[in-house]
C-alpha cells in the first residue's frame, strides 16, 4: 500500500511543484482537464457505443413525440413510457464504465486532498496534535519537536477515546518532523507550516485499510499507535475573487472538458 501511495503522490508532487509559480486554481484546472479526457477515453473503450447511440436516438424521438403530440394523451403516455425505458437503459449502459473509473478516480481524489484541502499551520499560532493509541494502558507517550516547533502543553489524556493530545506552535515555515516515543518505540509525523501552499500531509495511520483513506505518509510501524492527526486550517480555491471548494471546481472542469471533447474523440455520452 505504501508503494501505491508513493506512486500516486510523487507525480502529483512534481506536477504541483511545476505549477508553484501560478495560482492553485491553474494547476487544479489542468489536472481536471486531463482527468476529464482520461474518463472520456475510458468511457469510449468500456461502453457499448452502438447501443448508446440507439438509446439516445430513442430519447430524442420520445421527446419529439411529446412536443408534437402534446394534445393527444394516448401518444403522450406512450412517449413518456418510452422515454422512461430509454433513460433506464442508458443508465444501465453507463454503469460499466462508471464502475471501471470509480476506483482510480477515487484514489486520485483522496491523494489530491494533501494539495487542495489542507493549508499549512500558520506561524505563531497554536495547533493541536492528537494521537490515538490501540491500548488504554498506553500512558508513556512523549513528544519531541525541532527548535522551530514549540510544545506548549504536557500530554492531555482522554482515556475514554484512547487519545493523547499536545498543543504546539510553529515558528518557521517549511516541514518539520514530530518525534514521538510510545512504549519505548519511536514514531514520527510530518507537519507543514508557513503561509505557502504545497503538500500538506494528513493523518498518519498504522492500518493497511486506513492507509487507503489516509495515504500521505508511510504507515506507522508501532502496533500501539492507531493514528496521529494535526488540525490544519482548511484551504480553498480562489476564482474571480470567490473562494470555492476544490472538489466542486474539479467536477465542473473535468465534466466540461469531457463534454467539449466528446465529438473529437468520437464518444457518445
Notes on the protein architecture:
The protein contains six helices and eleven strands. With 269 residues, the chain is α+β, with helices and mostly antiparallel strands. The chain has two domains: 2-117 and 242-265, no CATH class; 127-230. Strands 1, 3, 4, 5, 8 and 9 form a six-stranded antiparallel β-sheet that branches. The protein has a three-stranded antiparallel β-sheet with strand order 2-6-7, with no helix packed on it. The longest helix has 44 residues, at 73-116.
Hey, roughly how much beta strand do the residues contain?
A: 15-25%
Structural class: alpha+beta
Give the termini separation.
34 Å
Oligomer: single chain
Total individual domains: 2
Q: Quick summary of this structure?
A:
With 269 residues, the chain is of the alpha+beta class.
Descriptive labels:
269 residues, alpha+beta, six-stranded antiparallel β-sheet, three-stranded antiparallel β-sheet, 21% strand
Amino acid at each position: 500500500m505504501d508503494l501505491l501511495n508513493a506512486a500516486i503522490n510523487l507525480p502529483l508532487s512534481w506536477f504541483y511543484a511545476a505549477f508553484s509559480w501560478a495560482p492553485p486554481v491553474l494547476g487544479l484546472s489542468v489536472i481536471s482537464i486531463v482527468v476529464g479526457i482520461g474518463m472520456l477515453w475510458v468511457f469510449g473503450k468500456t461502453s457499448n457505443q452502438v447501443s448508446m447511440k440507439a438509446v439516445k436516438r430513442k430519447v430524442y424521438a420520445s421527446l419529439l413525440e411529446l412536443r408534437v403530440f402534446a394534445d393527444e394523451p394516448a401518444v403522450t403516455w406512450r412517449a413518456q413510457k418510452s422515454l422512461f425505458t430509454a433513460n433506464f437503459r442508458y443508465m444501465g449502459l453507463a454503469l460499466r464504465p462508471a464502475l471501471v473509473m470509480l476506483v482510480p478516480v477515487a484514489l486520485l481524489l483522496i491523494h489530491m486532498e494533501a494539495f487542495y484541502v489542507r493549508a499549512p499551520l500558520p506561524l505563531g499560532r497554536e495547533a493541536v496534535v492528537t494521537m490515538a493509541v490501540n491500548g488504554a494502558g498506553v500512558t508513556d507517550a512523549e513528544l519531541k519537536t525541532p527548535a522551530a516547533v514549540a510544545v506548549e502543553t504536557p500530554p492531555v489524556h482522554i482515556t475514554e477515546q484512547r487519545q493523547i493530545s499536545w498543543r504546539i506552535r510553529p515558528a518557521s515555515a517549511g516541514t518539520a518532523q514530530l518525534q514521538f516515543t510510545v512504549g519505548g518505540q519511536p514514531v514520527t509525523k510530518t507537519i507543514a507550516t508557513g503561509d505557502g501552499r504545497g503538500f500538506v500531509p494528513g493523518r498518519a495511520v498504522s492500518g493497511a485499510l486506513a492507509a487507503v483513506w489516509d495515504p500521505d505518509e508511510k504507515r506507522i510501524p508501532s502496533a500501539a499507535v492507531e493514528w496521529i492527526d494535526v488540525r490544519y486550517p482548511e484551504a480553498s480555491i480562489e476564482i474571480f475573487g470567490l473562494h470555492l471548494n476544490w472538489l466542486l471546481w474539479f467536477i465542473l472542469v473535468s465534466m466540461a472538458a469531457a463534454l467539449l471533447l466528446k465529438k473529437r474523440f468520437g464518444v457518445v455520452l
